[in-house]
Write a structure and sequence with these properties.
It is a single chain. By secondary structure, this protein is mostly helical. It folds into two domains: 4-162, no CATH class; 201-226. It is 61% helix and 3% strand. The chain has six helices and two strands. The protein has a two-stranded antiparallel ribbon with strand order 1-2. The longest helix is centred in the middle third of the chain and has 37 residues, at 86-122.
């Protein structure tokens, strides 16, 4: 069972380490572990799956770009700037750079999906904001302004992880279902005997005998009642 307090620590520390060049990879690994803790805590496996796919696509794009960049530097230093085939290689390099851009966008899409689910489950809006900024920044890296947006996304990421509460206020929290409120038993009152309808009565004006209200003639003296 995952722990949200551990996720808060792992994600917050990892988000800070991402800013340090030589520790950036360690920071992303800690963030991935944090999403795993959250995924287990709220019992939603797709949170970690999306984050893992985001990490895999980002690593693939980074490795391809690093290899081509190293090859470009090595080839340029050995063959010279205007060696035959330089323009062909430049076209290949641009193609790989475009592929890296595509991988970055795909990675941002998966990360945005993961962070949106975390935002809904933990009620921390900073996760949704960070995910959206990641996607916008990744799409705009081709015009350089995206790097500034990515920097803002990293800041929101740190804020989001440090904003995690120990117990989320959502139904995703894996706690036993609360028992419904039991209303007190209703005690049935014993049925009261039927009350006899009240019969109006009167007295004979002549002899004073008590008579039913609807009597026309006195049953004692026979006088007609008015």
């Amino acid at each position: 069972m995952g722990s949200l307090s551990s996720a808060k620590t792992l994600g917050g520390v990892g988000g800070i380490l991402v800013f340090i060049p030589f520790l950036s990879l360690v920071g992303w690994i800690l963030i991935l572990l944090a999403t795993k803790e959250i995924s287990e805590s709220v019992q939603d496996k797709t949170i970690f799956d999306d984050a893992l796919l985001a990490g895999i696509t980002a690593v693939i794009g980074a490795v391809v770009f690093a290899l081509v960049f190293a090859l470009a530097v090595f080839t340029g230093s050995v063959a010279g700037r205007f060696a035959p085939g330089t323009f062909v290689f430049s076209g290949l390099f641009l193609g790989v750079l475009a592929a890296f851009w595509v991988f970055t966008i795909i990675s941002a899409i998966f990360l945005k999906r993961s962070y949106e689910k975390i935002s809904q489950r933990l009620n921390v809006s900073a996760f949704a904001t960070a995910g959206l900024l990641y996607l916008i920044g990744a799409a705009l890296t081709i015009v350089l302004v995206g790097f500034l947006i990515l920097l803002i996304a990293l800041i929101f990421q740190v804020v989001a992880y440090f904003s995690i509460q120990d117990r989320p206020p959502t139904a995703g929290w894996s706690q036993p279902a609360s028992q419904p409120f039991a209303s007190p038993p209703v005690t049935q009152q014993p049925a009261s005997p039927l009350q006899q309808p009240t019969v109006e009565s009167k007295f004979c004006f002549k002899c004073g005998a008590k008579l039913p209200g609807a009597t026309v003639f006195c049953t004692s003296c026979g006088a007609k009642q008015t």
